[in-house]
Design a protein that fits this description.
By secondary structure, the protein is of the alpha+beta class. Helices cover 25% and strands 12% of the residues. Strands 2-1-3 form a 3-stranded antiparallel β-sheet, with no helix packed on it. A hairpin with a 5-residue loop joins strand 1 and strand 2 (14-15).
């Protein structure tokens, strides 16, 4: 239906586009994933986030 707002991780600009209009980098969803105590993939999401932070 509608387009979700996105955010460029590099220059912190909000946009509706897949790529940032300023730097051209891919934009991401600025909101965190919904929390669920029964999250079956939480372990893998935390591992992925840790690896992403190490490479940044």
């Amino acid at each position: 239906m509608g387009t979700k707002i996105r955010k460029c991780a590099q220059c912190n600009i909000y946009t509706l586009k897949e790529n940032c209009p300023e730097c051209g980098e891919p934009s991401r969803n600025p909101l965190p994933a919904r929390f669920s105590p029964l999250d079956p993939y939480g372990k893998y999401r935390r591992i992925s986030k840790k690896k992403e932070m190490e490479h940044a």
